[in-house]
Design goal:
With 520 residues, the chain is an alpha+beta fold. It has three domains: 88 residues, SH3 Domains (SH3 type barrels, Roll); 197 residues, Up-down Bundle (Dbl Homology Domain, Chain A); 116 residues, PH-domain like (Roll), CATH 2.30.29. The chain contains 13 helices and 15 strands.
């Protein structure tokens, strides 16, 4: 059983705690732990609520807590109970005498399904009210004040929320039609999600714009007349006491909450139920929507990170990474041997889509990298090399793989320290080809404007010769907000936040924390 990482520090009782990765975490930082969705991580320290310290095989490092779910067995009693119920149902006609009933005349599983259906309906109605309040309470009032807002500003702050409001009203109508008021557990709502699965993709635009909305809003909130104006809008519309940025986060939360609700619904739907197949398909469809939105958002945020990273590399040569790539797939240290000289060199390798860049570490300043070259992955053939004598290089090798160019006589041998690291690299090379193929199929590409802007941002925050940490006011701003949490009858699981957590704490405090005899 999996349980989403919650918002407080986890206390360990000495037992080993594992977490499963929900999203890929690719990093350019030595101190961070990279992983792919589905990887299992041993959680070593979770005293900091946003960044945890974990281990995968021989790698250790920081990783964002919101990217994983803890493995716990908290649901077991309930599962056992349901298993007993099903046995009893199969073997006994007279179920009433078994004491397996929760509500008035409803077996446990049907009662639970009723609860989930009611929760979906009520959160949907609450959400429509949130959207209506934003569109009528804020946008309508802002449009009257042309002296305070331009249409472009409003588009930045509110994104396509009016389009989302129109769609969600249509979606709620569909749900209401399928909702069985007398016997909610008989409702068949799976088809509503399936019918509208492509419509939900409009959230991609909203989620990608959300960081700009927060930046624009925080600028305006420095001016008193805007603070008073937004507060007047809220009071006039009789909205709950949450700031506008809190309201604007609800669509981001909502699109991520659907897979959780549908997973819960599937759990309490009998395979014989007429809704079972639709709910199962709807869960996959909504997971894919969340994945697509999350992936596009991550890719757009990544281009700033990639530009930033490139600007810290000394002696850079040739075109920018962004001219061909938009995703860092894997990175790490390898021993490289190349024809014709074949002398071994320790290099840091960064595998992007379409290309791999390698750098040399500074002997004194280990965080400083010098550009040494790149390889065109579209022209490279990767092969696994058996331990022992390697015929091209005529030397004995261990944990090696070979990159051979299809367009020239370029050949490289790359060796890892351990066999499992070699397997990880082989997986990364096949991931890179898959990513390129997927981008081709979904038509994902960066615009020239996005590339230029990213490089411009990197230059601004990097005066020559002075590397500087990336500031991310949006994320810090986001984490300080009070968010309206949608009311729920079920244990509220943490939403997969699409935003990154705060900057990690320094290793100094981490080490001190490990030595202290007590936890916070």
């Amino acid at each position: 059983n999996l349980h989403c990482a919650s918002n407080h520090a986890i206390e360990f009782d000495g037992s080993v705690v594992y977490a499963e990765a929900l999203w890929d975490h690719v990093t350019m930082d030595d101190q961070e732990l990279g992983f792919k969705a589905g990887d299992v991580i041993e959680v070593v320290d979770a005293t900091n609520k946003e960044w945890w310290w974990g281990r995968i095989m021989d790698s250790e490092g920081w990783f964002p807590a919101s990217f994983v779910r803890l493995r716990v067995n908290q649901d077991e009693p309930m599962e056992e109970y349901l298993a007993q119920l099903e046995e009893a149902q199969a073997g006994e006609e007279d179920r009433a005498g078994l004491g397996l009933f929760l509500g008035p005349g409803l077996p446990c599983k049907e009662q639970m399904r009723t609860n989930v259906i009611n929760e979906i309906m009520s959160t949907e109605r609450d959400y429509i009210k949130h959207l209506k309040d934003i569109c009528e309470g804020y946008i309508k009032q802002c449009r009257k004040r042309t002296d305070m807002f331009t249409e472009e500003q409003l588009r930045t702050i509110f994104g396509n929320i009016e389009e989302i409001y129109r769609f969600q009203r249509k979606f709620l109508k569909g749900l209401e039609k399928k909702f069985n008021k007398e016997q909610p557990h008989l409702s068949e709502i799976g088809c509503c999600f399936l019918e509208h699965q492509t419509d939900f993709q409009i959230y991609s635009e909203y989620c990608n714009n959300h960081p700009n909305a927060c930046v624009q809003l925080s600028k305006l909130m420095k001016v008193n007349k805007y603070v008073f104006f937004f507060e007047a809008c809220r009071l006039l519309q009789k909205m709950i006491d949450i700031s506008l940025d809190g309201f604007l986060l609800t669509p981001v939360q909502k699109i991520c909450k659907y897979p959780l609700q549908l997973a819960e619904l599937l759990k309490y739907t009998n395979p014989q139920h007429r809704d079972y197949k639709d709910v199962e398909a709807a869960l996959n469809a909504m997971k894919n929507v969340a994945r697509l939105i999350n992936e596009r958002k991550r890719r757009l945020e990544n281009i700033d990170k990639i530009a930033q990273w490139q600007s810290t590399i000394e002696d850079w040569e040739g075109e920018d990474v962004l001219s061909r790539s938009s995703d860092l797939i894997f990175s790490g240290e390898l021993t490289k041997l190349s024809q014709p000289q074949a002398k071994s060199q320790q290099r840091m390798f960064f595998l992007f889509d379409h290309q791999m860049v390698y750098c040399k570490k500074d002997l004194l300043r280990r965080d400083m990298l010098y550009y040494k070259g790149r390889m065109d992955m579209d022209q490279m053939e990767v092969t696994d090399v058996e331990d022992g004598k390697e015929k091209d290089f005529n030397i004995s090798v261990k944990n090696a793989l070979k990159l051979r160019s299809l367009a020239s006589d370029e050949v490289h041998l790359l060796c890892t320290k351990k066999p499992e690291q070699k397997q990880r690299w082989l997986r990364a090379f096949s991931d890179e080809r898959r990513q390129v193929q997927h981008d081709r199929e979904t038509g994902f590409s960066l615009t020239e404007v996005q590339k230029k802007q990213a490089m411009l941002n990197a230059c601004k925050s990097h005066p020559a010769g002075k590397p500087k940490a990336v500031t991310r006011p949006y994320y810090d701003f986001l984490l300080r907000q009070k968010h309206p949490s949608l009311p729920t009858a079920l244990p509220q699981q943490q939403v997969f936040m699409l935003a990154e957590p705060k900057r990690k704490t320094s290793t100094f405090w981490h080490n001190i924390g490990r030595l202290t005899p007590f936890k916070k």
